[in-house]
Amino acid sequence: MEQILATTFRSAAPLVLVATAGVFAFRAGIFHLGLEGLMITGAFTTVAVAETTGSVTLGILAAIGVCMALSALYWWVIGPLGANVIIAGLGLTSIGLGGTAFALGAIYDRRGSLFTDVVLPRPLSGITSGPGVIVSEHSILVWLTPLIVLAAWIVLRRSRFGLRLAAVGEYPFAARTAGVSPSIMRLQALLIAGALCALGGAELSVGALHNFTENMTNGRGFIAFVAVIFGAWHPIGAALAGLFFGLADAIGIQSQINITERVPREFVLMIPFVLTVVAVWLGGLWRRRSLEAEAGYAELKEPDF
Amino acid sequence: MTVPSGPAPAAVPAVRCRSLGVSFGAVRALHDVSLDLAPGRIHALVGQNGAGKTTLVKVLGGLQAPDSGEVHIAGRKLPSGDARAARAAGLAMVHQHFSLPPSFTVAEALELTAFRPGGRSVYRRAELRRRWRTAAAEIGGEAVLSTRIRDLPVETRQSLEIVRALATDARVVILDEPTALLTPTAIDTLFERLRRLRDDGVTVLVVLHKLREVAAAADTVSVLRDGELVLGPSEMSELSQGQLSDAIVGPASGADRAVGVEAAANGERQTLLELVRVSSRESAFEPGLRRIDLSVDTSEIVGIAGVEGNGQRSLVSVIAGLDAVVEGSMVLGGTEMTSAPSARRRLRGLRLVPFDRNSEGISRRAPVWLNQSALRLIGRHPRRFPLISLRQYKRQAAEAMDHWQVRYDSVTQPAESLSGGNVQRLILSREMAPGLEVLVAAQPTRGLDFAATNFVRRSLRGLRDAGAGVLLVSSDLDELFELSDRLLVMYGGSIVARFEAPYDRRAVGDAMTGALR
Amino acid sequence: MTGGLQRLASTVVLVGFSFLLTALILWISGYGVGDVFSGTIQGAITATGAATSTVRWAIPLLLIGLGVVIGFRAGFFNIGGQGQFYMGACAALVVALGWREGPATLVILCGTAAAIIAGLSWSLLPGYLRVRFGTDEVLTTLMMNFIGALVLQYLTAGPMRNPSGTGQTAASERIPEAFRITDSSGVSATVLLLVGAVAVLVWLLLERTRFGLTMTLVGRNPTMARWQGIDVRRVGLVTFGLSGALAGLAGAVELHGPGARLVTGFSPEVGFTAVVVALVGLLSVWGTVVAAIFFGGLQSAILFLPIVTDLPPPALVLLHGMVAFLVTVKLRAVRRRRTGSASEAVTS
How far is CA B245 from CA B222, B251, B347, B507, in A? Predict the structure, then answer.
């Protein structure tokens, strides 16, 4: 039981961070499928810079910088240049996966993984007895994650910035009428998302582990995206969804050991995805009903000169 | 008071624009528009659909960058296409479409659009409610602040849009067709509010559709036609109704050839379309049908009058087979079709000119030949060879379009590159193909220029003379009086009155406004 | 016509630009710029077996990509190719391993039919939700990918697992050699004939049938199509079904062809790459054929690269990502934009 909880928090932390990133993008109206690419870039940059400079802080700062730069590029391509959001996002993911693996070879002349001793501190690593295992193995970023989620909630749900962002995602015309540039707001949302992805990647590489491995994100960026949808693009909802995915992961790992014969692990792991399909379906129903109540909005089909 | 239309006006105009030009692809929305609006007055801007009113308003508000020309507010030049700068200069807009996000609460929406808000950028909900308490007083008190925009009634939303605009200490307020969705009482309230604004020294520019409203509200009027300013700003008091309508409609152009129509119906009089006690479900925008009885016979045009939003859209959708009949029955060409799919109805001779030709009548991005051929795509032909010849499709489309005088360069050009009148001709060329028995024409001349309007009206008459039945839904009473053999008035989803020519405008008008009930 | 030429030119420019950008990154990293090009050409064409390998990888990309083209034609964004592909492969595997003693031709035919049905049903669910409830198909097909991958994992690690298998990733037992339609190169006359026939049929369907025109109208403006009496839901379901059927077929070809067994998480990128293939192919059938061969060559080069040059294979994954990142850029958008992004165009 303690083990399951410990694994849940460890698996969930990077997911929650990246899901929060996804919430920022989603609120701005962007289906961000580049999360995976940003996350692995964050993981690699953290390890590489931390190993070189000996400072994990510098590593994380560098990762944030690189991910924000990539996010700005992504914004430029899908915004001013008009590229397809989804295709460019998938491309960003491939660039991240390929680029980090390539850089590993080009810089360190090796394939596979890169180890480092410079990792994030684990504040409670002293406690090892009894239920203490739940808390002992977690890096400082795991402890900071709830604070980050809370901050995201304040920014998105209780600040003028959040209102503007929501207007941009829901009804750009409203934003422009209010003198808000949708384009600039999207850039800001993507930059924040980039920074959060960097943190997610850092937790994965120097928080939970001691290394960077090629393709180590292993689809977590996409799962985080799913968590955003499942959490109804609300920061708290997405965080809970991320936690839920972490739990499913932990149970999956445990069931491999304990109850394999009765419930195959794969079916446990499927539950979140099936639930998400149901959630998207019901959410769509609900949204459509509310859209129908929006007389005066539906007349926006064609321009009237 | 003199009208500052010439050079060197006495006072600095509140709004001045010089040589504005805007084009959307091949369509010229605005051409060389120069306009000075004197401060502290209510200015009306009128013109037909597509005359460029909304574009001009958007340019003034910085939501649309003009291709040429400039805008000055109170003597200061605005950077082009910068909504923020326009707001900073004291210009507030109330749009034709609602401009507040539906999922926001009223307080959130006010906070979003507030130009110079006080307080910190992070808020608590109670704090927001406190801040906007005064503004909310005008729209139903503090309780409304926690309501979501989408749950507000239409009038309240409209009021909120105005409150929002004024919350920014605006010196110039521009309202784009604010009366479109309002009831007559709400319109009076709105005009009263505008007069109060004027008396406080605010300059008001309001886009209006109906001359009656212009007369009721405006001090001066300006007229746009085909993207050009053809009149004004002129004092309302110095202008006759006739001068104004001439300016809006423009000179009559030369007549063009009437088009021959083949209709399937022949000889004796019979009922082509019959609705018996038909009811349908209401939609978000309109009441559903309430026990409608209606028939269209051979060789007649039946007109449907009514203030928009009284069930006309439901009626056409039900006949087309897009909305379900809840109760009652419908017979088309002698066949029971109450729940038949729309394809079967079309194959049985039902043809449609839908309300919104650009979104319902054509596919803007599809080539014109495909738009023209759409009728050939429905129905099954199990015995025919499955492969088709595109060349044949294109040739036949071109022939039909030539017959209907559609002006196009190539059959493969997208339909959006056609002008409004040509789009309507394209639709007619498709819908009036052989086999037609009943044509349902919804607002067939809306937004068309004089020549195109005449063309459409003549076509409808030709259709009747050839023996077909026509159901004409229009909000243009003159058109209905001119064309209809019989006239039915819809109100609240029911048919409340039936008239025969000659028509009494007053009686029809009373029926339309529900005075009969 | 000029619109088509413009799009072709813009795609060529963007793909070329992606190559240059990747070359620049490699040059900065100390590799020869020429290596990208020579490595790609050797790995895709000139090295022994490279050309065959290119075709082998082009086949699933083409089949799934054609499905994407069909979906786009009617206005649907099916990114569930991966899951449909997996489900097709799984269905064929169940048939082949469940009926080892059956006559080869019959088993292959049944397996292929099962694969088509599996792929079809895997996309019909999102399709049904889309046409009936308006549920966003990008999200649902993405979820179905994950579920499909887990089904594959379950089969290869559970009931169909090869007990004597070694190595890290679980794999199924091999299907009998008689059930294969190619050798391990993945290319044979049968397969080429099959894929060629499919491409021609899809082209005829899209460009020379009334249903193809109907799909175009639905894709361009479903409201207008409804007013025209077109059954938009039916068109949508058929489109989704065809799209998934092609991906399922690709799964059967993979199993009966080069695979012979299924490995957990095999070809993990093929579904997304197929979307890029369809877009690079300008959503036309023959364009998709060309693009599939191009990306098949890239995939082949990734595998051959360690043999022919010292360039690390991830460089080509990077190139691949660069192409996807840039290929949908609207070069005309570089000019002054008027209406903002597409989502705002409705309000302008």
Answer: 12, 10, 42, 23
Average pLDDT over residues A156-169: 91
Best A108, A281, A289 residue to mutate vs chain C (most C CBs within 10 Å): A281
Q: How far is C139 from chain B (nearest CA, A)?
A: 22
Does the CA dihedral B229-A303-B22-A186 come out positive or negative? positive
- Sign of the CA dihedral B103, B107, B108, B114? positive
The answer to whether B377 contacts C216, with C-beta atoms less than 8 Å apart, is no
Residues of A in contact with B24 (CB under 8 A): 303, 305
B323, part of any domain: yes
CATH class of the structural domain A2-291: mainly alpha
Residue B292 in domain:
yes
Q: Which residues of A touch C31 (CB under 8 A)?
A: 106
Q: Looking at the structure, tell me whether residues B313 and B210 fall in a common domain.
A: no
Q: What is the pLDDT of residue C1?
A: 44
pTM for the full predicted model: 0.84
Give pLDDT tens digits for A219-243: 899 999 989 988 888 999 999 999 9
Closest chain C residue to the Cα of A288, Cα to Cα: C134
Token pair, residue B304, equals 């449907």
CATH of C43-311, one of 1.10.10, 1.20.58, 1.20.120, 1.10.3470: 1.10.3470
Predicted local confidence at residue B293, as pLDDT: 94
DSSP string, B74-124: TTEEPPTT-HHHHHHTTEEEE-SS--S-TTSBHHHHHHHH-SS--S-SB--
pLDDT (tens digit per residue) in A258-303? 544 566 778 878 888 898 888 888 877 665 544 444 433 332 322 2
DSSP 8-state secondary structure symbol assigned to residue B255: P
Q: Which residues of chain B have pLDDT under 70?
A: 1-10, 25-27, 48-50, 97, 115-119, 180-184, 249-268, 284-285, 515-517
Q: Which of residues 150-169 of C touch A (CB under 8 A)?
A: 150-151, 153-154, 157-158
- Give C-chain residues touching B346 at CB under 8 angstroms: 228-229
Residues 65-94 of A with CB under 8 A from C: 74, 77, 79-84, 86-88, 90-94
Query: Between A and B, how many residue pairs show a Cβ–Cβ distance under 8 A?
Result: 110
Contact A174 B112 (CB under 8 A): yes
pLDDT higher than 70, residue A214: yes
- Give CA–CA dist A254/A269, Å, rounded: 12
Q: Where are the domains of chain C?
A: 43-311
User: How much of chain B is helix, strand and coil, in % rounded to 5?
Assistant: 35, 25, 40
| C336 in contact with A, Cβ within 8 Å | no
Structural domain includes residue B263 = no
Alpha helices, DSSP H, located in B362-449: 368-373, 390-403, 420-431
Continuous H helices in C134-231: 137-157, 189-208, 210-220, 222-227
For residue A295, which residues of chain B lie inside 8 Å, CB to CB? Answer: 154, 181, 284-285
Min distance A123 CA to chain C CA atoms (Å): 34
C-beta neighbour count of B212 within 10 angstroms: 11
Calculate the average pLDDT of chain A: 85
CB-CB neighbors (< 8 A) of C136 in chain A: 280, 284
Q: Which residues from B are below 8 Å from C347, CB to CB?
A: 97
Note whether B506 and B456 are same-domain residues. yes
**Sign of the Cα pseudo-torsion (A286, A289, A295, A300, in order):** positive
ipTM exceeding 0.95?
A: no
Q: pLDDT per residue over C164-212, tens digit each? A: 766 667 888 899 999 999 888 889 999 999 999 999 999 999 999 999 9
Whether C101 has a pLDDT exceeding 60, the answer reads yes
For the record, the structure tokens of C300 come out as: 């082949």
A300 touches chain C (CB under 8 A): yes
